[in-house]
Amino acid sequence: MSDSTSIIGRWRITEMDNWDQESVDLVQVGFIEFDDDGLGGLGFIVVTGEVDCRDADRDGRPGVEFSWQGSDEGDDVSGRGWAALNPDGTLEGHIYFHLGDDSAFRAERFNGVVQ
Fold it and tell me: How far is CA 23 from the centre of its chain?
């Protein structure tokens, strides 16, 4: 993830199109995380997953495209998504479930720490 180092870290999901914040934070605070080794994770509602990401510019902004797999209330789930850094330092993206829902999201860095 050489080109997208500005998005490396843990991000708190602050908004999703399909679910209210109480739902997003149902089990744990909703998050998405990108590590410098191209891996990461996500969690929201009762969904948890591992992320495999690649650098990808989004309209000239640093970003990633990713696939993910995990669990939704014990059922195996998988999908794909993307995320890009906004000029204000927030993250925006979209998460897709294979053969299921999808939702845009917004996120802020945990503790506001830039890495």
Answer: 16
Domains in the chain, number = 1
| pTM for the whole structure | 0.90
- Tens digit of each residue's pLDDT (9 = 90 or more) over 12-29: 999 999 999 999 999 999
**What's the length of the chain?**
115
* 115 lies in some domain: no
Euclidean distance between CA atoms 19 and 1, whole angstroms: 30
Domain harbouring 22, CATH code: 2.40.128
φ, ψ dihedrals at 41, nearest 5°? -160, 170
Which H or E run includes 48?
Answer: strand 47-55
